[in-house]
Amino acid sequence: MTGTVLNVATVLVCGGLGTLAGARLPEGMRQTALHAIGIVTLLVGVSNFLEHDNPLVPLVSVVAGLIVGEAIGIDRGLKRFGDYLERRLSGGGSPVSRAFVTTSLLFCVGPLTVLGSIEAGITGDFSLLALKSTLDGIAALSFAAVLGWGVLLSAGTVLVVQGSITLGAGLLEGAVTGAMISATTATGGVLIFGLGLGLLELREVRVANMLPALLFAPVLVAAAPLWPF
Questions:
Q1: Helices and strands (DSSP H and E) totals, the chain
Q2: 96-108 and 178-199 helices cross at what angle (nearest 10)?
Q3: Residues 88, 111: contact at Cβ < 8 Å?
Q4: Are the CB atoms for 151 and 19 separated by under 8 Å?
């Protein structure tokens, strides 16, 4: 769990610094910075999507995941939780819900989350998670400067998601293949692209409702021998 603890600490420290710095930035500069982050997020999503050679896997995974996510209401639940925290802790004076949901998704659907957590759980090597911690720290600093202290709440999401994958990795040893990981990465790229669209205010996508897609992707790859095409 060392890599996950390091990641959580980095998000908290850098997010805190970003919150302090953001309060000093003019509104126009924060808006421009948000758009710049949105563009980079789109590019990261595209890069991740290209990790898998069969686009049908992320497509089917996202559609199936979206059906489940919409039925459960994941996006609605996360936003209600963020809004609750916003009312309790800031009196509604900052965009806590948006910051929490956006950064929680961004920090947890990338390839380093899956690869790093599995490697740390199986071998004890947390070098990939250390790299992810650095990248997440930079992102937390940037997002917090624009969206405020709600970014700090995503540290809890990182702890739960990465910690669960790391602790469960031992049970998955030998069952997880490179193709499964690349398919999950590509599917995560679709979700990250959706985040970018929202940050650029081009289209509000309920990305959280697509989260079950990350579970469908490796299952589809495992079932590939049964496909009729």
A1: 10, 0
A2: 160
A3: no
A4: yes
The tens digit of pLDDT for each residue in 143-183 reads 888 888 888 888 988 898 888 878 877 676 667 777 888 88
Classify each residue of 10-24 as buried b or exposed e, where b means 16 or more C-beta atoms within 10 Å of its C-beta: bbbebbbebbeebee
Judge contact between 137 and 10, C-beta under 8 A: yes
Residue 35: φ, ψ to 5°: -65, -40
Length of the chain equals 229
Give 94's DSSP letter: S
Residue ranges per structural domain of the chain? 2-223
How far, in Å, CA of 31 to CA of 132, rounded?
Answer: 26
pLDDT at 98 over 60: yes
Residue that is written with structure tokens 């999950």 in the block? 184
Q: Are the C-beta atoms of 48 and 56 separated by less than 8 Å?
A: no
| Gyration radius (Cα) of the chain, Å | 17
Query: pTM here?
Result: 0.71
Report d(CA 86, CA 179) in Å as an integer.
Answer: 40
Contacts for 174 with CB less than 8 Å, ≥ 6 apart: none
Q: How far is 187 from 133, CA to CA, in rounded Å?
A: 22
Q: Give dist(CA 65, CA 42) in Å, integer.
A: 20
